[in-house]
Amino acid sequence: QVQLVESGGGLVQPGGSLRLSCATSGFTFGNYAMNWYRQAPGKEREFVAVISSVGTTDYAASVKSRFTISRDNAKNTVHLQMNSLRPEDTAVYYCNFYSNYKYHWGQGTQVTVSS
């Protein structure tokens, strides 16, 4: 059974940092690209970052140079290091991957950036 469990969210002041983690099981993690998405209140879910199976990364323009995605294939985990956080980064953050014609999602972790 595929499972993705996000953690590491919380309340942080503007300019602060958080590191999100997504622990996975039930599939061959190293074979898949992994994504982070986010959904802010009243907005559609949006792409944040992706890391390929070989470590190639890409980012949404809004987070480039502030966020870093990484993966640990030995631990079946993907991380999102978020620096210089802004109030507009407030959202529920989700990890996912695409397999068997569908996206598999975690339950999300809340990130709130506020003073």
Descriptive overview:
With 115 residues, this protein is mainly beta. The protein is built from no helices and 11 strands. It has strands at residues 3-7, 10-12, 18-25, 34-39, 46-51, 57-59, 67-72, 77-82, 91-99, 102-105, 109-113. The strands form 2 sheets. Strands 2, 4, 5, 6, 9, 10 and 11 form a 7-stranded mixed sheet that branches. The protein has a 4-stranded antiparallel sheet with strand order 1-3-8-7, with no helix packed on it. A hairpin with a 5-residue loop joins strand 5 and strand 6 (57-59). It is globular and about 40 Å long. The termini are far apart.
Q: What is the rounded Rg?
A: 13 Å
**Mean of the pLDDT scores?**
97
Residue stretches low in confidence (pLDDT < 50, at least 5 long) are none
- In total, how many beta strands? 11
Proportion of residues in helical segments: under 10%
Sheet of most strands: 7 strands, mixed
* Assembly form of the protein: single chain
What gross morphology would you assign? globular
Determine the structural class based on helices, strands and strand pairing.
mainly beta
Order of helices and strands: EEEEEEEEEEE
Number of helices: 0
* Straight-line N-to-C gap: 40 Å
- How much of the sequence lies in strands comes to over 45%
SSE layout:
Layout: E1 3-7, E2 10-12, E3 18-25, E4 34-39, E5 46-51, E6 57-59, E7 67-72, E8 77-82, E9 91-99, E10 102-105, E11 109-113
Parallel strand pairs: 2-11
Antiparallel strand pairs: 1-3, 3-8, 4-5, 4-9, 5-6, 7-8, 9-10, 9-11
List key phrases describing it.
mainly beta, seven-stranded mixed β-sheet, 115 residues, 11 strands, four-stranded antiparallel β-sheet, single chain
